[in-house]
Amino acid sequence: TIPKHNLNFSPFPPLTPQNVAVIGAGAAGLVAARELRREGHKVVVFEREIKVGGTWVYNPSTESYPLGLDPTRVVIHSSLYASLRTNLPREVMGFRDYPFVVQRDPRRFSGHVEVLEYLNNFETEFGLGELVRLGAEVRRVWLEGGKWKIRSRMSVRGDLDEVYDAVVVCNGHYTEPRIAEIPGIETWPGLQIHSHNYRIPEPFQGQVVILIGSSASAVDICRDIAGVAKEVHVASRSVTYGPIGKLPGHDNMWLHSMIESAHGDGIVVFRDGSAVCADVILHCTGYKYTFPFLDTNGAVTVDDNPPSLSFVGLPWKVVPFPLCELQSKWIADVSSGRVSLPSSNEMMADVEAFYRNFNTSGIPKHYTHNLGDSLFEYNDWLASECECPPSDEWGKEMYSAASKNRKVRPETYRDKWDDEDLAAQAREDFECFSK
Ligand code: FAD
């Protein structure tokens, strides 16, 4: 297939073209490759799987250790479950100049297959395939003589060491499970699983399941399982939907506070004083950042040269695709010298002020990348640095309407909404991209 857009032609000749290695070919890696090429850099994308798409490549298999804690296990990258539909409306979810319009699945909150198809079309349309090395796992990244060395492994070829000017890390952060600490769990006889290894509800037929968490996946998975399980008990640190007790609309699902302790006779006690004898504890408790290949001798230093190690897609509570697109544009521009960084003193002062504010407000450090309410401010700052238009007003309003709707109507938010006017406005705006 001939790509519609020729990335070998850059409208602005780069000031300083770089040889850039991108690690990962999910949404972040693909858009990073596009932006770097657009700016005239030379790009190689390393992808350890045999397909592009990252999280959106559904894998029905699960890992051999259901909690996913054994460092020697064979890692399965994607955490998607079979029934997953997006938790964002498609109009806000897509890249800014390549809208996520209907491919096959006409729903506004589509199934996961539709998202993968969109990413595959994006790859084809911009001719990114020729930049991607599939089945190439980055094993080690280190600095040597002011350049980056990358050691990659392809099963057919073995290890290969190469030299790059810059590295853009796009390895995703929904693969390495974080689990809840439960006093007494060592003696508890049931099965523990992390949502990373949840695919379908059938294995939970007739069981008593405790699900820990209140994220988007927790809200979906507890309902998925309630269709077949005997009982589902949701333990939540932040009860965001309904009072503690039976969940409305379900005769076999209860909401509890967090778990207090687990016991050798199978009993699990909650902080609200209730207790159940459970077969399974399912941790929907999120993920850890991990960069096992990075070896920077404990320090990432930036001297006079353009900064050369960047990370795309780290923030959470965001709309990932457009955020990754803007971060990538900015990285491409900074790498070529089109955009300058503040001085390192200014940046350090900013970091210190940021954490002082965390300290005084009692916010834990692991919330560093939680953008939440600052999402659009952050995106618009990146956009202005790169001389791009700011976020559309309809997009901001739609994001906030969808977030509210998700909280108020967790059962039906994907099929009932009140922002049809915004969706119509979005579709009108998208017409300029179909020409
Ligand atoms: P990933 O998609 O994880 O891609 C990372 C890539 O890096 C992978 O292909 C991996 O194989 C590769 N890689 C990792 N390590 C190496 C290595 N050492 N060498 C080479 N390659 C490597 N976002 C939305 O916008 N809407 C949603 O509705 C939504 N729902 C979600 C539901 C779930 C259950 C999860 C887990 C996430 C969801 N997200 C959603 C967020 C989603 O993660 C982002 O949309 C997006 O896929 C992130 O892209 P990424 O490229 O940063 O990471």
Strand content: 15-25%
Task: Give the CA-based shape.
Answer: globular
- CA distance, first residue to last residue: 19 Å
Low-confidence stretches: none
Describe this structure in words.
The protein is an alpha/beta fold. The protein is built from 9 helices and 20 strands. The protein has helices spanning about 25-40, 90-95, 110-125, 215-225, 320-335, 345-360, 375-385, 395-410, 420-430; strands spanning about 20-25, 40-45, 130-135, 135-145, 145-155, 160-165, 165-170, 175, 190-195, 210, 230-235, 245, 255, 260, 265-270, 275, 280-285, 285-290, 295, 310. Strands 9-17-10-11-13-12 form a 6-stranded mixed β-sheet, covered by helices on one side. The chain has a 5-stranded parallel β-sheet with strand order 3-2-1-7-20, covered by helices on one side. The protein has a 4-stranded mixed β-sheet with strand order 6-5-4-19, with no helix packed on it. A hairpin with a 4-residue loop joins strand 14 (about 260) and strand 15 (about 265-270). The model has no long low-confidence stretch (mean pLDDT about 90). It binds flavin-adenine dinucleotide (FAD). Flavin-adenine dinucleotide binds next to helix 1, strand 2, strand 4 and helix 5.
